[in-house]
């Protein structure tokens, strides 16, 4: 029996925060901003301005930049795929899951160019069975529809059950549960003031992959 494992991308399979810090340093240098500007950018990011258009509107105002916010945002999306990395052990863990009978997919919110660029440049697009990007499909997690598309791209259906692994309590865990999936939450020490009820809590995606592999190992051979 094949099983479905869906993963979030940002800050689950890749360390987006680390890439953001690199970008912030580059941005400050390019626009001749002070070191303090990097702190400001990181803080603004942490303070929950995930919508980048709004983020860049604020950044533009703060540093009196002449380029329009939409242009700054486009440049960000063009650059980020070059700054993210997927650790080799994470790539290996996904490959191992597939080898042990799992169908592995990625379900992520974000603009099509940025998210697709990250999937392709890290090589993740080649090691999973399928992926669903909100910017392409026009629906966002926690909407069950995006999980459904990801499952289908993996040759599976949500009615078969499966797992969702991610760091966002609402988008990944509430969304995954609503989609009928069991869940593993990556607790990155950041709370968004929302309690979630995952089946497992881990601090690294490798631990999540280990949990899934163990589950498979406990199944009788004919059900794997
Ligand atoms: Mg995430």
From TrEMBL:
Keywords: Hydrolase, Magnesium. GO terms for molecular function: hydrolase activity. It holds the Pfam family HAD_2. Its cofactor is Mg(2+). GO terms for biological process: small molecule metabolic process. It comes from Streptosporangium becharense. It comes from the Bacteria. InterPro entries: HAD-like_hydrolase, HAD-like_sf, HAD-SF_hydro_IA, HAD_2, HAD_sf. The lineage of its organism: Bacteria, Bacillati, Actinomycetota, Actinomycetes, Streptosporangiales. This is Putative hydrolase of the HAD superfamily.
